[in-house]
Write a structure and sequence with these properties.
alpha/beta, Immunoglobulin-like, 4 domains, flat
Length: 404
């Protein structure tokens, strides 16, 4: 504006203000190239985060120069992932119907929303305290995951101002890292009782669906007529010069199956179903219980937690990276029926109620297996589910679980 108004130097002196401001900007930019902070940075991420729940992590900054570094700003840069054409055409921004016709036609806000969702996380810029010579400062950054799955970080940026405070110089530090974001989970009513009770387990503690029957070792005893030769403990037999066999016992404990239906084309319904499954994974914990998580991806997957098996974290990790499956829901039914005899109960989280899923539930109940069925749907009135099915509406799932 000063340059335009000061074109005629005979009529106004405002061109002098333009010259002063121009020189200040040039000096500021040159000073940024001369003075560059000598620092190093290192990001320290937690092992896990939870979708839509804010968390904090730290970045260590070290001053390797010969003067105090101050007035610095730290910015963490996640890897930006723009949406694909197919994603842009199939997804809609929440509340997009309230925008004007031009914005809906152009799709700019939908593009920005999808890009933020694909990137997966938002972070805040942080003012860095002064760092003494050869010292280190730990900077706390707040972040909020926007989705489950793996979030990638690309670099860290350190902003430093010029002496006049007109410009920021940017130091870019490559820092590739990954963070696993677990699914969001909801609070389940304390009045809700899990289906089934303690049940005989022919395989003992070491029994799983991927390994054949085994037994739980208790002690050693003398050989009796009829004992199997496979149970002889040969080191003890050699020491005592008479047959000694290993004694086992069968155990009774609670074993639940959590069945997650991933055969749906509705992304929002699938996300809610995964969140419900994660909520039950966190609820079904105990020293005398086991939980088998079953779901379909490219094939049938079974992840078992509990006594002598993986931890709950492994099941949450599996849910974090789960997507829709092209396989039919009947694959789940066939898998459960093969092992119904060792199960105490079954929890089914379904994404639709059709003839296939109805037959699956009826076949399980006909075997005498106690079942709790949850249906995730957008329209509870149109679901046509029977009374024993807990219908959870998208957007109100947490309220539905709290009222069980």
């Amino acid at each position: 504006m000063c340059a335009v108004l000061g074109i005629d130097t005979d009529m106004t002196l405002i061109y002098q203000l333009f010259a002063l401001m121009f020189c200040m900007i040039v000096i500021a930019r040159i000073s940024l190239a001369i003075h560059r902070p000598r620092v190093t940075v290192r990001r320290r991420l937690p092992r896990y985060a939870t979708a839509h729940e804010p968390f904090e992590y730290f970045v260590d900054m070290s001053n390797v120069g010969d003067k105090v570094e101050g007035d610095l700003t730290l910015v963490d840069n996640p890897l930006v992932r723009p949406p694909t054409i197919a994603q842009f055409r199939s997804r809609r921004e929440p509340g997009e119907e309230t925008r004007n016709a031009y914005d809906r036609w152009l799709g700019f806000y939908r593009f920005i929303w999808l890009q933020r969702l694909n990137t997966g996380i938002t972070t805040t810029s942080v003012e860095v305290p002064d760092i003494a010579i050869k010292s280190r400062a730990r900077v706390r950054i707040e972040a909020t995951p926007l989705r489950r799955g793996v979030v990638n970080f690309e670099s860290l940026s350190v902003l430093h101002p010029d002496p006049l405070g007109l410009n920021f110089g940017i130091l870019e530090f490559p820092a590739r890292d990954e963070l696993l974001v677990l699914p969001r989970h909801y609070r389940i009513s304390a009045n809700f009782e899990l289906p089934g009770g303690r049940h005989f387990q022919p395989g003992g503690v070491g029994s799983t669906w991927s390994i054949g029957e085994s037994e739980e070792f208790v002690s050693l005893r003398d050989y009796r007529d009829g004992d199997s030769m496979r149970k002889i403990h040969w080191p003890s037999t050699a020491r005592r010069s008479k047959p000694v066999v290993k004694e086992y016992q069968d155990e009774y404990f609670v074993r639940q199956a959590l069945v997650l239906d991933t055969s749906t084309s509705d992304d929002e319904v699938l996300e809610e179903a995964i969140s419900v499954a994660a909520s039950f994974v966190l609820k079904i914990t105990g020293a005398d219980s086991m939980l088998d998580l079953l779901y379909l991806s490219r094939k049938l997957e079974v992840v078992t937690s509990g006594r002598g098996n993986a931890s709950v974290a492994h099941q949450l990790e599996a849910l974090a990276g789960l997507g829709r499956s092209p396989l039919p829901a009947t694959e789940l039914s066939d898998a459960i029926l093969r092992f119904a005899s060792v199960l105490s109960g079954c929890i089914l989280v379904l994404t639709d109620w059709d003839e296939t899923r109805r037959r699956m539930v009826e076949r399980l109940m006909s075997r005498g297996l106690a079942c709790e069925v949850f249906l995730i749907t957008r329209d509870p009135e149109a679901s046509a589910a029977p009374p024993f099915v807990h219908v959870l509406e998208v957007g109100h799932v947490e309220d539905g679980l709290a009222k069980l």
